[in-house]
Structure formats: structure tokens, C-alpha cells
């Protein structure tokens, strides 16, 4: 090609990447659900001494089997996701990524085929920089090749981390990799770490670009196996909700990191809290736990269909902390069904106190912003308690255990005689900056 033609072609690609191409893959209309290796299995590469727990094709095959046989798939968990430490340290002669030959002897296409044969989807991890966080080859310099490799392995989900990269280059780099993913013609969920590295570097992430190019993204620290870690994440999302909440919606989600329920660090109450608050946050539900040995009560939390339904609510509105005082927090998320100008809600009462005895919380529905004159059917999502249909004036009382939660669902009641489809005649506008959820009708 002549020199000026090459320059022109180069400019064209850049323009396409910068201005025209957004991710638009139609995926993750509700937050993705699945299993992800990292928090529980880390970078254990010692298959010689620890064959059952090392990062290997056997681990992922086994987890895929259990996701089906133990009923996780039936309640919505779908992705089996590999995290760091799956690679050989060197690319092959064609510059392609190579899975570790000892630990993934049949290769990634074979593992992907196995996961698909179970009716599940397959996810993989890479990093935008020169290396992954654990020091394996990153995608920098090989963006197109690696996107093509993932497509050739029938990958459904890519987590692209941001170690060993310049945060200031991520505004260009993450969309560029997304562009090459699109170019493959295979729809793959694109999970980004773009904002978190920029926030660490003191930058203000450009969330309108991030929403356009990523299906989900990390905002904050890695989750660790402790209640302190879960609390720090809950605080981060509460304290920064005015910036964060409005960015979530069908196809694009904030990712507060994995569910650690069933591991070593959380009590039963704390595990219930993580599940409830993650559902309020419209978070991806990515379990990182040993499904071979999880105790039944923790499995029941992960498989709580009512809470999963809150997480997966089709409106995709992320909830907010609407009250915080003396260790008691109230979190609220607008959900379906809607009736006229009114949402239904999931409401979580969280007790951050450690004074050893349950705390009583009493509040009217109206004080929570639930004002429909038709009333709300209220039920507890962990306990088998149906409060019946309550008016906005009704005061509800809950007892919340230390570091525990009570999560309720309040479904707005319809007045069938006056019923009109909200999507043709009414417009309900959710304003995330309001302290409580106020609803406005028409004129928008
Ligand atoms: C980063 C990510 C983690 C995990 C590790 C792997 O710390 O935030 O979720 O993927 O890298 O090395």
C-alpha cells in the first residue's frame, strides 16, 4: 500500500474506534450470573501437590458439572469463568496466547466445548497491559490477535484487567479491544477494570464512555475473604452512589466483585447480607466458592430465587442507600411491577452494629418513599413472612441481627379497573439523585 494510503487507512481505523463503534453486543440485559475462580482459588498452579484445587481444566469442568447437578444453573447461574494464571508465560510463534500445557492439556477450545455441552457459557480472563496481574502475558500489542483467539475458542465472556497498563491509556485501549471483539462477529460479554485503575491513579473516569463500551466494570478494591472487605465495598457503593448508581442499566453494570458466600470469612448472617446488598446493587452474581464442599445453608443463600429475582429485575435500576444512622442502614431498589407512576421496591435493612442483640427498625412505607394509594404487597425474602397488602401509612417493624439483614419486597398493587399500560401512556422517571425515590409522571 502507498504511504499516504496507509496513513489514511490508519486514520480511518482510529476514527472508527474512537467515534462510531460502541460495544452494543446485546448481552447482559440483566447482571451476569455464574462462577468465577479467583477469590477462592487464586493463582494456585501447584497441580502436583494440590491437584484438586489448582487452576486447571479439571477444576472448571468439575465446577461446570456441579453448577448443573446442584441446581445453580436452574436458578440462573450460567457462566463458568476462568480468571488469572491459565496461561503459558510465552506466546507461540504466531504471537498467540497459549494455555498452560500441563494444567490445560486439552486447550481452551476443548474446555469451552465442555462448558457449552452442559448448556453453560464460558468466560476467560486477560489484561489490557503488558502482563496480567499475576505476571502472565497481557494483550497489549496483540489486541486483534487475542480477540480473534478468544472468538476461535467460542469464549462468551472476557474480563479484561488493568495491571501493567497506564490508566491514562485506558480511554483509548479498552474501546479498542472492544472494537476488535466486535470485529470477530462473536458476541462476548466485556468486563472492564477501566474505572478502578483510573480512580486509583486519581483520575475521574469517563463513565459515559465506559457504559458505551463495557458490559460491566469494577469500581473498587478486590473482594477478600472477610466481613471487613464486604463492609468496605458496601460503604464504597453507598458513599459514592451519586456518581455510580446512574451508570447501571440493562447491558452495563457496576461490579462490586465476587460473591464470597460459603467460604471461610463470612458468618451466616454476613453471607445473607452480601447476597441481599448485591441484589440491591444490581450486581453481577459471580460465585467464587468451592461448590464441592459448600454447606447447605450457604448454598441456599446463593440459590434464593426471590433475591435473585431482585438482582435480575428487568428494569435494571441500581438501588441506593436511603438511610444511615447509628449503624442501621436502609437500602432500596426500584423494581417491577410498576403501576401507573409507582415502582415496586426491594428494601434491605442492614445492621452494622456489633452490640450482640438484634436491633428493631420501624418505619412507614411512606417514609421509605412508597406512596402508592393502592398499597403494596410486602413479603420477607429470607423468612417465610407475608405481611399482606399494606398502605403507605402502615408502619413495618423488623428485627435485624448484628451484621445481618432483613430484605423485603414490596409489590405495588394495581387497581384493575383503572389499569393502563404504563409504557404507552405513562412515563416513569427514576432520578437517582433523589434521597428517596420520587416518581414523576408525563412531560419527560
Ligand atoms: C486483579 C483483579 C482480580 C483478579 C486478579 C488476578 O487483582 O481485580 O479480580 O482477577 O487481578 O490476578
TrEMBL record:
Entry keyword Hydrolase: yes
**What enzyme class is recorded for this protein?**
hydrolase
- InterPro entries linked to this entry: Aldolase_TIM, GH, Glyco_hydro_27, Glyco_hydro_27/36_CS, Glyco_hydro_b, Melibiase/NAGA_C
Main localization is other
* Gene Ontology CC, one term: membrane
The superkingdom listed in its UniProt entry is Eukaryota
A Pfam family (short name) is: Melibiase_2
GO BP term, example: oligosaccharide metabolic process
Cite the record's note on assembly. Homodimer.
Q: What is this protein's record name?
A: Alpha-galactosidase
Q: Which organism is it from?
A: Zophobas morio
